[in-house]
Design a protein that fits this description.
2 strands, 7 helices, about 200 residues, mainly alpha, two-stranded antiparallel sheet
Length: about 200
């Protein structure tokens, strides 16, 4: 039951991961340690204003970035900087990576939503309302971009390029739905034709 509920979430997460896996594959081909890219993304996140003045949320932001910074710093001093059998260099046998990876999609979606909302505010202020004095859009775009940076740090370390060789989860789900629909369609039955003895004909 729980797996069925989480299936759409996993499908969205996989779609995002596949995009980062393309970048990760390029970095691996160039022998670039992904942590050199990921660590500055942490500092962009920490350098922006908090999403809210709520103390608990501010603590979450700091703790989340802090856990990921530890993973990135450790990754800089590890020779095993490529994905091997598992889906991440960031595993590092470290609980920090498991925590940050589990929350990567909500962080990514928060950043995407804020960036989109800020862009809408920009268009509304300068195009629709002609109110150029409203700069709230700048804050939302900035914070949204920072959250996307933080999510990118986690996704880059945990996106296995091998995932690109697998069929996407959404495609598997679509094939199952199509297969179920095809199997549920009524099939024509063979019945004897009236007055024709053993001759058979199809009826719908």
């Amino acid at each position: 039951m729980l797996e069925e509920i989480l299936a759409p979430v996993k499908a969205i997460d996989e779609i995002v991961e596949r995009q980062y896996a393309k970048v990760r594959g390029y970095l691996d081909e160039k022998n670039i340690n992904v942590c050199y890219i990921a660590l500055p993304l942490n500092f962009i996140f920490l350098a922006t204003p908090p999403l809210s003045e709520n103390f608990s949320l501010r603590m979450f932001e700091g703790a989340y970035a802090g856990l990921d910074i530890v993973v990135n710093l450790e990754g800089l001093y590890k020779k095993e900087d490529k994905v091997s059998d598992g889906p991440s260099v960031a595993r590092l046998s470290n609980g920090n990576s498991r925590i940050t990876n589990a929350l990567r999609l909500p962080v990514f979606l928060t950043g995407a939503a804020l960036t989109a909302f800020g862009t809408y505010q920009l268009v509304d202020s300068y195009v629709s309302s002609q109110n150029s004095d409203n700069h709230e859009w700048l804050r939302n775009v900035g914070i949204g971009f920072a959250w996307l940076c933080q999510a990118s740090s986690v996704y880059l370390k945990n996106s296995d390029p091998k995932v690109l060789d697998k069929k996407p989860m959404w495609k598997n789900a679509l094939e199952k739905v199509v297969g179920f629909y095809e199997s549920a369609k009524p099939q024509p039955a063979m019945v004897p034709a009236p007055g024709q003895g053993p001759n058979m004909r199809l009826i719908e």
